[in-house]
Write a structure and sequence with these properties.
single chain; about 220 residues; alpha/beta; Rossmann fold; Arc Repressor Mutant, subunit A; five-stranded parallel beta sheet; four-stranded antiparallel beta sheet; 8 helices
Length: about 220
C-alpha cells in the first residue's frame, strides 16, 4: 500500500482529499503545518507528497527545496497562486507536477496514480550508448560513468526523449508531450528551465562532456 502525505492547512479541502484518496486504497498522513513535514519524511518515507505552497510554519517552496537535498520522492504542488512564476519556481526546485486550485479531487487522484505508476520499480533495463551515460527507464534512474544522477522525473523524461540517435533534434512541443501524460499546455520557458537544470546536472557529473545542445528557434539535440 502506497503512503501519501497530504500537506494542506485548509481543513475542509484536506478532508475531501482524504475521502477520495483513501477510497483508492492509499495510506494517508495529513499535515496542516509546513514545519512538520521534513522530519516526518525522514521517519516515515512516504511514496508521494501532495504539497500546498501557502502553509503556516514553512512554505511548500521551502519544504520542496529541503526535501530535494536528500530525497527524490515525487512531489505534487497545489496552489491558488496561478501565475507562471510560482509554477515555474516550484518545478525548478524539483516538484514533479502542480495542480491549481480549485481542482477536482478526481483529477488529484488521477495525477497521483499516474506518477506512482511512473515511479514504480520494475525489473531493471539498462541502456547505454558507450558515452558513459546509462539509462534505467523503468526506475527513472540515470548514471554517468557509474555515478547516479539526481534527476526529477520530468528531467529524466526529457533525457530519455532526447536519448536517441546522435544529432537528432526534438522540438520543444515534442518535449512538452514527453514531460506530462495529460498533454497540458506549458510555455517554452518552462521547457527551457527543465532542460537547463538537466544540462547543469549532466555537466556537474561529467564536466568534459556536453550531452544536450540547444538548436536555436527549434529545440534540443542529444550529442
Amino acid at each position: 500500500m502506497s503512503k501519501i502525505f497530504i500537506v494542506e492547512d485548509e481543513e475542509k479541502l484536506a478532508n475531501v482529499l482524504e475521502k477520495y484518496i483513501r477510497a483508492e486504497g492509499f495510506d494517508l498522513v495529513i499535515f496542516d503545518r509546513g514545519d512538520q513535514v521534513v522530519e516526518a519524511v525522514h521517519q516515515q518515507k512516504p511514496d508521494l507528497i501532495l504539497l500546498d505552497i501557502m502553509l503556516p510554519g514553512k512554505s511548500g517552496i521551502e519544504i520542496c527545496k529541503e526535501l530535494r537535498q536528500f530525497s527524490e520522492i515525487p512531489i505534487v504542488m497545489t496552489t491558488a497562486r496561478v501565475d507562471e512564476i510560482d509554477r515555474l519556481l516550484g518545478l525548478e526546485l524539483g516538484a514533479d507536477d502542480y495542480i491549481c486550485k480549485p481542482f477536482s479531487p478526481r483529477e488529484v487522484v488521477a495525477r497521483i496514480k499516474a506518477i506512482l505508476r511512473r515511479t514504480r520499480h520494475d525489473p531493471v533495463e539498462l541502456e547505454s550508448k558507450n558515452t558513459g551515460l546509462i539509462l534505467d527507464r523503468p526506475n527513472y534512474q540515470a548514471a554517468i560513468d557509474g555515478v547516479a544522477l539526481q534527476l526529477t522525473p520530468i528531467e529524466f523524461k526529457i533525457l530519455a526523449a532526447l536519448y536517441g540517435p546522435p544529432s537528432r533534434v526534438l522540438k520543444r512541443d515534442t518535449l512538452m508531450n514527453h514531460m506530462y501524460d495529460d498533454h497540458r499546455a506549458v510555455s517554452d520557458r518552462t521547457v527551457d528551465s527543465h532542460v537547463a537544470n538537466l544540462r547543469k546536472k549532466l555537466k556537474e557529473a561529467k564536466p568534459d562532456s556536453d550531452y544536450i545542445h540547444p538548436v536555436y528557434g527549434i529545440g534540443y539535440r542529444y550529442l
